[in-house]
Structures are given as structure tokens and as C-alpha cells.
Amino acid sequence: MPPEPFFAGPGIDRADALRARPDEVAALLGNERATAVMWSDGAPALGIDGRLQWQSVAGDEPLFLGLDNGVPRFSTLPDGTVPTDSRAHFGMLGQLAPDDAPLFAAALSLANWHRRHGFCSVCGSPTDPNRGGWSRECRSCSAEHYPRVDPVVIMLAEHNGRMLLGRQPQYPPGRYSALAGFVEPGETIEAAVARELFEEAGIRVTNVRYLASQPWPFPSSLMIGAIADSTGAALVIDRTELDDARWFTRDEVKAALTGDGGASFLPPPRFAIARTLLEHWVAGSAS
Amino acid sequence: MPPEPFFAGPGIDRADALRARPDEVAALLGNERATAVMWSDGAPALGIDGRLQWQSVAGDEPLFLGLDNGVPRFSTLPDGTVPTDSRAHFGMLGQLAPDDAPLFAAALSLANWHRRHGFCSVCGSPTDPNRGGWSRECRSCSAEHYPRVDPVVIMLAEHNGRMLLGRQPQYPPGRYSALAGFVEPGETIEAAVARELFEEAGIRVTNVRYLASQPWPFPSSLMIGAIADSTGAALVIDRTELDDARWFTRDEVKAALTGDGGASFLPPPRFAIARTLLEHWVAGSAS
């Protein structure tokens, strides 16, 4: 079996039912074992072992993450300057311990959402955290707002045994990866996959199959990985989105994934679901 | 093959690339074939044939839906009172022509989003439609906001050949349907399925498989349909969410789907993806 995507896994017990009981959350905050996320440069801080760093709670931690083998875990909004470019965080992902990755994703996505939702989109008034930090309520119109999760399709397209990959302008030299795009209102996953592949590469696809999913906390996406069959090989590349797109053979993908020095391209990093999709394809589990 | 979910399908050509070219959208607005959605009670109006009703564009239609076999289609925000309870619209879904359902979903979801996003969540200032209505931009801080699509998992759980279904308090008498819940930040689809089934019914599941997806414009969800294997049959029902939950045999589900008068429950309506999931299971394509 190919590995699970990075950031996947059950994470901790979110204990959702407690969010509606502020007295119980307050009691957990007073629990001597309770700890809160430490932040560094706008992301959860990691120790040298790649594990999340925790500190004792200090008063009014507004975000209740859940119960970690009985330990109450809280989060706050990070202080200081927040990198606006999510790629600033990618360097640390190579260090992050896989077991802590789901909680890292939850804490960072939730913080990213709170940072940009201090005001009510309905009436413009200030909002305050509610439900242990899993919503915000407007002080004026009482509208309740919930954290966003943006579904994104990310997909491989196959034709005659070859796989379509593309490169975005900001990628490191030589890297090719799966094409991707946001699911829009009124679309299925399958329709979004077909639309994005046509828009970005000019191909028409059939037989869209779901493969795996991954939370992606930059700022708060749900990556939905799929594979589809292209009806042809001719490409019309959208140069506003992509530097290039090309078909690669299975041998080329295998060489890239094994880190072969002579590989024809640099594969996506281990923490990207695009790599998991390529591993599925090479292993034959995506057919 | 079981049918596709209602609201599924490619819909019209969204012509996304034009959204970044306001001059071209304005030219399409002046096209003599251009038409705009008619609204009735907060939803797109239907004719007696169940088709969407269109009117000529009147000046400043801010939302560009796309090209419908070359015909430019626009939308506005609906006037008048908007039903706050989405179930007010369910009656009309039985009339809606399946071919028009994807466009109905796109227009209604987009309108639902604009209605609640007149102000910037970052700074509280007014926002204006941008990109042909596919974003809103803040007049003050220039933050750009994109339409929300909220991913929801909706799932069947199987144990010893029986299927778990539940009923929400607002269902009509006798109806049972698939359990469902929002995907949260930091979760995979598979983790959300497992969490929701444990929270609402107290069961632990393995082997979560994706089946189908559906846009759901009340207000703007992406329903992600799945099936999982339960490790046991004992239920702990969350009575704040559900009136009841029960295991049903395949014969019971078959009888319900065929409208058998002696069926032990009323199945979900044809426009709900829960029904599609049950059809998959009965057809054996969900194994």
C-alpha cells in the first residue's frame, strides 16, 4: 500500500460536544495538565525532534483543540508578524513529526481563519470567538460564522500509460507536480477535476476516480486527490497558471520518486498529496 | 450503474478565464442573446416544465455564470425576502429539471454567499463584487474574498450486511437517511467520516470508501458521499443531533427505495445524495 498522505490521520479527540459547554471548557483550562500551542513565526513551534511544542495555559486561551490521550490541548492566535506567503512554512514541514501533523494542521488552519475573521461579513461589526474557538459570533447582528475549509481538487491525468504533470512558476527548478484548483459553488468533485484539467492543460477527461484526501493548512484547504483518463495527448497550456505541462512515463515517475540522480524531473515533496498520488500510480493502486 | 446524484453534471462552460477580463464580460452583457436568472422567493424561478426561467439582462448584472452553448448567462442577487430555512426550497426540487440542476445550484450558492458577504471579515469595511461576481474586494484594505464551499461528509456504515441510518428531528415521519457532518479544519475526508459516526452513533469504523459527490446549495455545501465498515453494532445515539438511528437490512432498504407501501422506513428524496448512496449499496457497487 502507498503511504497515507502527510497531515492525514485521526489526530486527537476533538471532543466536539464540549464546545457547546463553556463551563466544561473552562474547567479543562484549569486542569493542571492542560497545555497550549507555542507559536513561532506564525506557525506552531517544533522541537528538534519535530514534535509540537507545548506550554502551560496562561489565562484566556480561546481555542479548545481537544483531548490528547486525556490531556486538554488549547491554542491561541499567534503573536507577531505572520508570513503572508505560505511557502515560508514549507521548510519546517520536512521536520514535522508525522504523528503531530494532523494537530499542526488543525491549529494552524484554525488560527489562519481567526486572523482574517475579526469582523462580521454580514454587517461589518466586530466578532468574538465562540464554541471553544470553533466559531465566531457577531456582537451586533449575532450572526455565527464557522471556520472555512476550502475544497481543492488535485489530480493526475493518464493517457496511453503516461501521466500529465505541470509546473507552477514558483516551483523550484525541475519540479513537476499534479495540477490543482478550487472546487467552485455548484460543482461536484468530478466536474471540478474535468474543468481544471481543461482550463489549465486543454485536455478532456473521463473516468474520474477519487484516491485520497489531505488537510492543507495554507491557509485552510481540503486537498481531494483524484485520477482521470485523458481522451487525448494534445495540450493547450494556460501560461497564466503554468510554466509548463508534460506527459511522463511510469519509468520516469519511478525514477523521480526514488531520487534517481538522472531522473527527468524533481517530484513533489513528501508532505504534498501530489506525491502520494504518484506513489499510488506507480504502485498500480490507482487503476 | 446507479444514477448520478442530483445537481451533479458538468453544467455550463464557466469560462473562468473571462472573469479576469472585465471588458469582455461587459461585452457579453451587451450581447443580444445574454440572459439573466429570474428569482422567486429567494431561489431561481422554474417554469412549469421545471426549467430555469431567464430574462433579458437589465444593465448591471454583476454575476457572470458562464456560456450556455454560446449564450451568456448572468445572475443577480435575488430581491425581497429570503427564506432563512433552506427546507422552504425543497418542495421545488421535485420539479427542477435534472439538466438545469447544476446551474440552479451554482446560481443559488453564489447568491447565498453574496448575501452574507457585503462586508470584509478582515477589517469590517464594505466589499464590492469582483471577477464577474466570483469574488468580492474590500474597499478599504483590498482583501479579496472568494465564495465559500463547505465540504460535508455524508456516509453509510455497514455491519454484518446491515446499514446504519438515522433520523433528524425535522425529518418527515418515518424518514431515515445517511448521517452527515461538516469536515473541520485539519481533517481528511476519512477522519471526518469516522469522527461523525462516532459522535452521532457511537460506532468505530474502518475502510472508508468514497462513492460520489454533490453540490448542495443550502447555502453552499459540497456533499462528499462515502461508505465505511463498522466494527460493531452497538449504538450510542447523540440525541441532540438525532431522534433515532437504526440498522436496516438490504431487503428493507430495497423495499424503501422501490416505494413499497409496507417498507419499514421512508427513504431520502430523489434529490438527496443519501438516496444515491443507498442505490449504490443496493446495486452492490459500494462494496
From TrEMBL, chains A, B:
UniProt xrefs under CDD domains: NUDIX_NADH_pyrophosphatase_Nudt13 (cd03429)
Class in the EC hierarchy, top level: hydrolase
GO annotation (BP), single: NADP+ catabolic process
The UniProt record lists the keyword Lipid biosynthesis: no
InterPro entries assigned: NAD-cap_RNA_hydrolase_NudC (IPR050241), NudC-like_C (IPR049734), Nudix_hydrolase (IPR020476), NUDIX_hydrolase-like_dom_sf (IPR015797), NUDIX_hydrolase_CS (IPR020084), NUDIX_hydrolase_dom (IPR000086), Znr_NADH_PPase (IPR015376)
Stored SUPFAM superfamilies: Nudix
Listed cofactors: Zn(2+); Mg(2+)
E.C. no: 3.6.1.22
Keywords recorded for this protein, A-Z: Hydrolase, Magnesium, Metal-binding, NAD
Domain Nudix hydrolase: 147-271
Reactions it catalyzes: a 5'-end NAD(+)-phospho-ribonucleoside in mRNA + H2O = a 5'-end phospho-adenosine-phospho-ribonucleoside in mRNA + beta-nicotinamide D-ribonucleotide + 2 H(+)
Family: Belongs to the Nudix hydrolase family. NudC subfamily.
Record protein name field: NAD(+) diphosphatase
Taxonomic path: Bacteria, Pseudomonadati, Pseudomonadota, Alphaproteobacteria, Sphingomonadales
Gene that encodes the chain: nudC
